[in-house]
Sequence to fold (363 residues):
Amino acid sequence: MVQQTIAIAGAERKSGSIIAQKLVSLNQHRLLLLSEDEDQLKDLPEWLQQKSASGPEQINCLKDGCWEADIIILDVPFSSYAEVAEKIREVSTQKIVFVLSGDGQDPLPTISPVEEWQDLLPNAKLVIALNPLSSSGTMLSGADGESLNIIAEILKKLGLEPIIKIKNKN
Amino acid sequence: MYELLHQKVSEIIHITEEEFSFCKTLFLPKKLRKKQYLLQDGDVAKYTAFVEKGLLRTYSVDEKGNEHILQFSQEGWWVSDLYSFLTNEPSLYQIEAMEECELLLISKSSWDLLLEKVPAFERYFRILIQNSLIVTQRRLMGTLSETAEQKYTRFLQSYPDCTQRVPQHMIASYLGITRETLSRIRSQIAGRK
Fold:
């Protein structure tokens, strides 16, 4: 089976780091850690920085990393949503983009992140997790049922409890 | 990113800018590094791919571990296991990047949507599949009846840009001859020039 490539932007942040760590432990995917700020990549936990043949690879270009990816995971501050979307829009078409939102690191956005991202990446298959690491389960929302199920299956393998709560229509 | 696709499509059918803009929303852009796989045997071919940049090979591996190369796919070509793509059955082939590749992938559901919304693409893909059938029949007949030199000459005609990009042992595998036979044929051809 072709090994899927997952790119993570925001692996230095709270949810991104935990998801990345769990994906490394699972060892079923090729993992790319993305940031255009080299200092941010230096902020990665030590275990994520270790370079090995099978370990995560660091890439300092969001667009290139997302171009290689089958699945894109974003843990980025609300204030940079538009900037990140602009950089990856062309290469994220038809790809699953899994957005981690509302983990307490940033003030909550004034409008729903689901609507925000659907406007920013209209041709991506968006799956949004609100409070992804909540002990009461990870609520997933999105418009594409297959993508929701794929992300839910991955989260189960990571030991999380996904709850497909909302299916928004485009 | 879509320039070559637009050019190749426009060589066969007329489509409006609006139709091509819609077409672009259905493709998944994918970069592969050298030796990464687009498809492995036993998997269902979920996509058919247009090659924007790079070179791939489609091959199968027999019980003894020998590789048999069915096709090379270069810039401007489409590549997939069409049988698996259309039937959802597991593929018998591996498709591997021989160079860093930039591909545009389209899933079966997006492909169906494209054909429904832009009927000109029905004609485009009909012509591609028609041409592919002709090439396949010629290759089959060549395998049955041509000499090794004739096969090599046909390879040079089919892949004029590939001889410098494909290792000799892979060309031999594609032609179904040994590396030594290929080397002898190349020497004979060079000697006549």
Summary: The mean pLDDT of chain A is 85. The domain at 5-166 of chain A is CATH 3.40.50.720 (Rossmann fold).
